[in-house]
Specification:
This protein is α+β, with helices and mostly antiparallel strands. It contains four helices and 17 strands. A hairpin with a 3-residue loop joins strand 15 (about 295-310) and strand 16 (about 315-325). It is elongated. The relative contact order is 0.16.
Length: about 350
């Protein structure tokens, strides 16, 4: 009898502990749900929420890349490929957006000239996260050159040069202060609709790694064959094999959504970033001195978009331009890269809340 009584007591205690543990988990889940819902808190007088769980989109992307390198004595070169079009599918689920675009000029999954870009984004009304991976290929052209007053470089303009390749990998996170009335996703992820014009300040942090490789022998050969008089001595500040930049930045900016007609939106935003930058490089003689530095520079980013969105179908275009600047006594680099996107998409899988209203 005592054994049975003890067993009953023990079982009761286990059930109580289980109930407490379950209640604790339920409270934790409740807090998590509140936190998640808080990230999407909006004023429906200004913003129409997303009615669907999923979206598919076809996007055409035009890339612009410009890289300028400059030595301390004024020698400089600017490289840029012809603008190319890439096409690819994107898929979205609520906050998450993933896509891949293919270079239509060089359709393959390998090769030095293959341009590749992979984007992954998470958008809510309060915060946004962008992850990007970009390989620009090696089909560059020489756009401008300055090698000294006594050198005629005019024949170098527009000459193809496949001895340079650039890779960009990075991530950025930003916070929208006026997130209840201003929707950044309405302009750049089409996951909500802005109903009334509104703007907001933004702040963010980001990390970028840039890798640039240069074939010195090929560059010297191209310069000698197109310049007068020849041969030409290129400043050692431009003769590197590879340079790697590591960029950590803090940014601040402003964005404004203008609703100029029903279901139509124009967005413009700009931000400046104070960036701490570290670099290391390998020169032709194997010595990286002068290419290794730690300093702070100012970078910038601009975003512009026009969107039509009736919650089921959407279409539009966007322009995103970034600038990165690196400066040291021996060597400096200025980079401008941007995307111009044209897209059309379809939302499906209506949320339960909106199915009940039908």
């Amino acid at each position: 009898m005592r054994f049975v009584l003890c067993l009953v007591v023990c079982c009761s205690m286990l059930l109580v502990n289980a109930d407490d543990a379950f209640a604790g988990r339920r409270r934790e889940m409740s807090k998590l749900r509140k936190t998640i819902r808080g990230l999407s808190s909006i004023d429906t007088n200004y913003i129409e929420p997303q009615h669907y769980n999923y979206t598919i989109m076809l996007q055409s992307t035009y890339n612009y890349d410009l890289y300028q390198i400059r030595s301390n004595n004024g020698h400089e070169m600017t490289f840029s490929p012809d603008m190319t079009m890439r096409l690819g599918p994107y898929f979205g689920w609520r906050w998450f957006f993933l896509g891949y675009t293919f270079d239509l000029k060089n359709i393959s999954f390998g090769g030095d000239k293959q341009k590749r870009e992979l984007d992954f984004s998470i958008y809510s009304s309060k915060i946004g996260i962008d992850l990007f991976y970009r390989r620009t290929g090696s089909d560059y052209k020489i756009r401008s050159v300055n090698l000294g007053e006594d050198i005629d470089e005019s024949r170098l303009n527009g000459v193809p040069f496949d001895g340079i390749s650039v890779g960009i990998t990075g991530a950025s996170l930003y916070y929208i202060f006026n997130h209840r009335r201003f929707s950044y996703p309405a302009a750049f992820s089409q996951s909500t609709c802005q109903k009334l014009s509104c703007g907001s300040w933004m702040a963010g942090v980001g990390y970028t790694r840039n890798d640039m490789k240069l074939d010195n022998d090929k560059l010297q050969e191209v310069v000698d064959s197109h310049c007068e008089p020849s041969p030409v001595k290129i400043d050692s500040g431009l003769m590197f094999n590879s340079v790697r930049y590591y960029n950590v930045n803090v940014s601040c900016g402003y964005a404004y959504n203008w609703v100029f007609a029903k279901n139509w939106l124009f967005c413009a935003s700009g931000a400046v970033a104070a960036a701490y930058k570290h670099s290391d490089g390998d020169t032709k003689d194997g010595v990286g001195r002068g290419f290794d530095f730690d300093n702070i520079n100012i970078d910038g980013i601009g975003r512009f978009g026009v969107v039509y969105n009736n919650t089921r179908f959407y279409a539009g275009s966007s322009l995103i331009v970034r600038t990165n600047n690196y400066h040291k006594s021996r060597f400096s680099s200025n980079e401008v890269f941007g995307n111009f996107n044209i897209y059309v998409g379809y939302n499906f899988g209506k949320k339960l809340h909106y199915r009940k209203k039908e």
